[in-house]
Amino acid sequence: MRRKKLGRSDLELSVVGLGTWAMGGSDWAYSWGSQDDNDSISAIHQAMDLGINWIDTAPVYGMGHAEEVVGKAISTMKEKPLVFSKCGLVWNDKRKVTPLLKRESVKNEINASLKRLQIEVIDLYQIHWPRPDEDIEEAWEVIAGAVKAGKIRYAGVCNFNVDQLIRVESIHPAASLQPPYSMIERDIEEEILPYCATFEKGVIVYSPMQKGLLTGKYTKENIKQLSPDDHRKYDIQFKEPILNTNLWFIEGLKPIAEKNKITLAQLAIAWTLNRREVTAAIVGARNASQIGDTARAGDWVLSDVDIALIDSLIQERQERLIH
Ligand SMILES: NC(=O)c1ccc[n+]([C@@H]2O[C@H](COP(=O)([O-])OP(=O)(O)OC[C@H]3O[C@@H](n4cnc5c(N)ncnc54)[C@H](OP(=O)(O)O)[C@@H]3O)[C@@H](O)[C@H]2O)c1
Fold it and tell me: What does the pLDDT look like over 288-306, one tens digit per residue?
């Protein structure tokens, strides 16, 4: 698996990393439906066996559950992967999630994550969402303090715009940004990627398969069968009128994947890695077989011809959505 340096940090990341959102399991607002912890642990072990050297998680994924599963999976490993977590989304007794970036809350979140993950230091600690916007500096100061105290190696952010990146920079340098990026979610290309390239910020993109949609396994029929607590049921990309155009788009990708003897999942991930500004892609998996497929995207590079073919499909998708 290829590796790339994360911005100006000394972290060398496999270009594919493992995401753990779905491993949080059911019974919370942004769940992916139920999930077997043994499958999650097998996926984590398989990822490491295939050359992936980092895991992305967050306290809110299953309200502590995904972090606990990661902690359990890596506790027995002699050589542990790099572990990335986040702060800023907290929950109450009724499992209601609220954005919170206040000083005491962030301090508590860092300590709680270290405990659940069963580690002494978190390799990359990120603000999950810039909400409330007026509190991002307050949270960032706490994170910078935790870097000095040795609880965190590097500080990063997720879902920030350029103005927000600039605001935190004067307090402490951000090692990286974690934004969404896929063939059908390209907002970062205009402003954010150029900023990250100029200021040498690592870029770790999330949802490269658009939450599984770009793997080609979803149809109008089986989306209806998704569990009622799978939040994708309510995601606009999985719903009409956009779904119809997305399914047309995926049909267009199939000959490109077939010609290269790769899966659609690998094609979708490799496409995000083609941008030189992108350090690595976080790939969600629910079992060993899924990551067994997707990890291979880290060893495969798209040709210019295929990039051009995909670009024209993306363009036509946009036009279909407008008309
Ligand atoms: N910072 C943030 O705000 C933020 C936001 C979103 C995500 N993230 C991070 O990024 C990670 C990745 O994003 P994501 O999980 O949203 O989306 P993704 O990686 O685009 O999709 C992952 C999902 O696709 C399906 N899948 C995976 N491999 C497959 C394969 N080989 N064949 C068929 N289906 C496959 C699985 O779900 P099914 O089997 O159920 O379809 C899996 O959970 C997350 O886990 C999380 O760590 C961060």
Answer: 999 999 999 999 999 999 9
Ligand 1 contact via 271 beta carbon (within 6 Å): no
Residue 29 lies in a domain: yes
Q: What is the pLDDT of residues 241-250, one digit of tens each?
A: 999 999 999 9
Substitution candidate for ligand 1 out of 176, 283, 300 with most atoms within 8 A of CB: 283
The answer to whether position 73 is within a domain reads yes
* Number of domains into which the chain is organized: 1
- The predicted pLDDT at position 74 comes to 97
First to last CA, the chain: 42
**Where residue 79 sits, what CATH number does that domain have?**
3.20.20.100
Please indicate, yes or no, if residue 67 is contained in any of the structural domains. Answer: yes
In a domain, 107, yes or no: yes
Q: Where are the beta strands (DSSP E) in the chain?
A: 3-5, 12-14, 16-19, 54-56, 82-87, 89-91, 97-99, 122-127, 152-158, 176-178, 202-205, 280-284
Q: Is the Cβ–Cβ distance between 238 and 217 less than 8 Å? A: no
- How far away, in angstroms, is 186 Cα from ligand 1 center? 17
65 touches ligand 1 (CB under 6 Å) = no
CB of 294 shorter than 6 A to ligand 1? yes
pLDDT of residue 323: 80
Ligand 1 atom 5: the closest Cα is on which residue?
Answer: 206
Q: Over pLDDT 70: what percentage of the chain?
A: 100
List pLDDT tens digits, range 20-39. 999 999 989 999 999 999 99
